[in-house]
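Why should sequence recovery work at all? Because a backbone constrains its sequence more than one might expect. Tight turns favour small or flexible residues, buried strands favour hydrophobic ones, and helices have their own preferences. The token representation captures these environments compactly. In the example below, the structure is given first.
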């Protein structure tokens, strides 16, 4: 099929019924008024003209050439759009999206069929909007997404508080406070900006106000009613990302046409993500759109239910160019080709088919166990991935197989079932499955965490009775991995995994019962056909912008032996980059630091400073967002400040200070 020519409409506007105008950027196939095309909507708060411009410009021209109008819309209150951002996935946000879809379907250039696509926020709201069943929405592609906002997002995980919750609140405060573009909104840009700034709030206050899985988190969690979705769903994730559980969950539970993929990637579109191999996402997406938006019989519905990359022999590193492995496909999920194999934690530190005599094992990890944990939200080729786990394993309780005589291949979610007692009402456990290489290097395959007060569910936590043994189950994240012969499998268990998860109020000692009543269950892949997953023809598809000042990324750990403090530092600087079309120069700098005393969980402190600048010619604007999190035994303490500058002049300043009760956390 020949490629269609297209034009880019930089400043399209969509008027909602309440008078709010949403700004859009559109890649429109030529002649669509006479030969209408389906529309592909991506609907985000991340600023279409600078924030997501590079990735948009790598994808939407390809879609336009294939006969689709790509429509990248700034949500209410973001970018150049009117209004205020209320919160993530608010009812207003989803209602606006439904209205936008109806508006798109009614345009004379649109065939009446609409698809919705996105990664992260856009992947979330694509599924959530689909659950509202707008008539014109026929298909969705959702990447790095979740079906459960409480357990599989950046806020909480099985009742454990993620440090990423703090980071994300700081980042969203910075993102939402950036100015509209004077080139688009005209002379009223400054008034528009000040109105936005005055309407903002610090989102961590809201998120920490809901420490249980209540109605706030059930809203937008499609696992509450999978049957609500009718649009065809292609759902994609990556082992290098915190968002890896949704693809197989969707494949197992959705009744609509659904296909799932998990690759080796971080939190990026898979045609330019790391580690490699990459996926020809454009071809995969167009096949999906062609089938469900144009009705082309291309057998997209006959694709395997779940395609996954099985890693093997990965050498642990905080950043990797490639992960060795192979692609496999299963025709249904759950698959009859995956069987469960249970190993026991033995009293001599083994991981064995034979339980041996019953015993107990004790672990009381220092609070700085976990500095090689990596980050939940993996974005940049720096040091986001978990590194060699030997240091953290040395601060943990470990159980290990003998040298494997045959390879073991897994696909799915391992699970630990064990009797546990702790010496306090509240405590966390972190469980990792490790691939131990013959030379001792330890690669984390997958992770599970549990706030023990949430052992019976996340809606109504129940503190532990100190000293009382209870059986608990900890489900680890989805994984696909082949343990080679000559390697060992290790299970590492700790009472701390900082800074990935934040500590409970007191230092905890845990006792685990070993032997017959302990079970570590592996999802063993017995057989699977090879999947053909073509890589993109262009290995470097993102457009190049002029770099006016270099950026960089760093992660480093300091241990102050005199003060008895461990510090974990993060620096991400995008550098100053100029858009070649409209000349906007953009830069973001993230400075984040965590500190803790190894013997004192109440010493935990998180601090962040986010700088965002925009400039063109003699115009410039800058925001500075600084945030701080501390805790005592009963409360979390939040501090935040937002400053906005026009040129060098401070035109806005606001501070927040909140104290929030710890709720079984």
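From this structural description, the recovered sequence reads:
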């Amino acid at each position: 099929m020949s490629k269609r020519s297209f034009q880019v409409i930089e400043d399209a506007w969509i008027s909602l019924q309440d008078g709010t105008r949403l700004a859009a950027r559109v890649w429109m196939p030529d002649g669509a008024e006479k030969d209408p095309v389906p529309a592909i909507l991506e609907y985000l708060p991340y600023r279409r003209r600078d924030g997501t411009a590079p990735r948009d410009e790598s994808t939407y021209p390809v879609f336009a050439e294939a006969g689709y109008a790509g429509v990248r819309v700034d949500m209410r209150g973001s970018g150049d759009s009117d209004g205020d951002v209320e919160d993530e996935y608010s009812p207003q946000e989803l209602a606006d999206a439904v209205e936008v879809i109806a508006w798109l379907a009614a345009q004379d250039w649109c065939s009446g069929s609409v698809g919705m696509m996105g990664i992260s926020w856009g992947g979330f709201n694509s599924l959530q909007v689909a659950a509202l069943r707008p008539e014109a929405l026929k298909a969705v592609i959702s990447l790095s997404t979740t079906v459960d906002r409480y357990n599989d997002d950046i806020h909480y995980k099985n009742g454990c508080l993620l440090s990423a919750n703090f980071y994300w609140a700081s980042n969203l405060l910075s993102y939402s406070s950036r100015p509209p573009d004077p080139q688009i909104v005209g002379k009223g840009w400054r008034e528009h900006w000040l109105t936005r700034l005055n309407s903002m709030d610090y989102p961590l206050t809201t998120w920490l106000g809901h420490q249980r899985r209540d109605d706030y988190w059930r809203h937008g969690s499609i696992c509450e009613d999978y049957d609500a979705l009718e649009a065809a769903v292609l759902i994609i994730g990556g082992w290098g990302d915190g968002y890896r559980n949704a693809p197989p969950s969707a494949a197992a539970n959705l009744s609509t046409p659904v296909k799932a993929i998990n690759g080796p990637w971080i939190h990026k579109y898979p045609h330019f993500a790391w580690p490699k191999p990459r996926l020809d996402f454009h071809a995969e997406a167009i096949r999906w759109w062609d089938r469900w938006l144009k009705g082309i019989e291309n057998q997209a519905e006959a694709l395997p239910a779940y395609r996954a990359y099985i890693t093997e022999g990965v050498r642990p590193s905080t950043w990797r160019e490639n992960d060795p492995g192979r692609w496999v496909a299963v025709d249904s999920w759950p698959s009859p080709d995956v069987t469960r194999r249970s190993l026991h934690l033995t009293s001599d530190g083994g991981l064995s088919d034979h339980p041996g005599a019953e015993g107990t094992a004790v672990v009381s990890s220092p609070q700085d166990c976990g500095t090689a944990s990596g980050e939940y939200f993996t974005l940049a080729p720096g040091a986001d991935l978990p590194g060699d786990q030997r240091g953290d394993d040395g601060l943990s309780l470990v159980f290990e197989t003998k040298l494997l005589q045959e390879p073991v291949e897994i696909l799915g979610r391992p699970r630990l079932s064990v009797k546990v007692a702790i010496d306090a009402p509240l405590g966390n456990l972190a469980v990792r499955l490790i691939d131990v290489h013959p030379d001792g290097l330890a690669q984390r395959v997958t992770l599970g965490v549990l706030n023990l007060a949430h052992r019976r569910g996340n809606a109504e936590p129940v503190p532990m009775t100190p000293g009382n043994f209870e059986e608990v189950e900890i489900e680890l994240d989805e994984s696909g991995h082949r343990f080679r012969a000559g390697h060992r499998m290790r299970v590492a268990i700790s009472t701390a995994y900082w800074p990935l998860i934040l500590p409970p109020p007191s230092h905890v000692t845990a006792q685990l019962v070993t032997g017959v009543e302990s079970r570590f269950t592996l999802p063993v892949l017995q057989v699977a056909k090879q999947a053909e997953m073509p890589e993109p023809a262009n290995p470097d598809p993102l457009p190049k912008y002029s770099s006016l000042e270099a950026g960089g990324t760093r992660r480093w750990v300091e241990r102050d032996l005199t003060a008895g403090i461990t510090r974990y530092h993060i620096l991400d600087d995008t550098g100053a980059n100029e858009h070649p079309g409209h000349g906007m120069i953009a830069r973001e700098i993230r400075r984040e630091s965590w500190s803790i005393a190894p013997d004192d969980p109440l010493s935990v402190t998180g601090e962040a400073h986010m700088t965002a600048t925009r400039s063109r010619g003699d115009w410039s604007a800058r925001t500075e967002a600084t945030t701080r999190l501390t805790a005592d035994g009963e409360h979390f303490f939040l501090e935040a400040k937002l400053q906005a500058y026009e040129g060098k002049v401070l035109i806005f300043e606001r501070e927040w200070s909140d104290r929030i009760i710890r709720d079984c956390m």
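A few observations help interpret the result. The longest strand covers residues 600-616.
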